[in-house]
Design a protein that fits this description.
This protein has one domain. Helix content is 97%, strand content 0%. It is built from two helices and no strands. The longest helix is centred in the middle third of the chain and has 121 residues.
């Protein structure tokens, strides 16, 4: 026999033996591979379930955060509008008071000056009656004197 052919056959036999070993190992790995595949599928299913729970949890948290934020914003809007309303009311009162003093005070002073004598007379009502009584007395005396003078003449 030829040496190279023999070496080739030996190598070929050795390769076939190695191939048999690899196939045996593959046969032993196949159940482990199937178990690993099942575990991966189960992990994928569990992950999907947990992901759904996580999504629901995040949605719930987001809804709570939105509600809390809306309440917070509404509270601050109400407070800011209250402060603005008070400031505006005070500003309007200040403007009204300054307008009153600038425009109406001089007119009221003139009116008070012209009405003051009437008010003072109303405070002393007996002066009017006294004037009427004096007029009536003088009229009676003049009438009596006229009557007496006319009779004696």
């Amino acid at each position: 026999m030829n040496r190279p052919a023999m070496a080739r056959e030996m190598l070929l036999a050795e390769a076939i033996g190695d191939l048999a070993l690899v196939l045996d190992r593959l046969d032993r790995l196949l159940p482990a591979h199937e178990r690993a595949t099942e575990a991966l599928v189960k992990a994928h299913t569990d992950l999907d379930a947990r992901t759904d729970d996580f999504k629901r949890s995040i949605i719930s948290f987001t809804d709570q955060a939105k509600a809390h934020t809306a309440k917070h914003i509404a509270h601050h809007v109400v407070e800011a509008s209250r402060v603005a309303r008070e400031a505006q009311t005070q500003a309007m009162a200040d403007v009204a008071q300054s307008m009153f003093q600038a425009e109406l005070s001089p007119v009221l002073r003139r009116l008070m000056t012209s009405v003051q004598p009437v008010v003072e007379r109303l405070d002393r009502p007996w002066e009017r009656w006294l004037t009427h009584a004096a007029t009536a007395s003088v009229s009676a005396v003049v009438s009596a004197t006229l009557v007496i003078w006319l009779r004696s003449s």
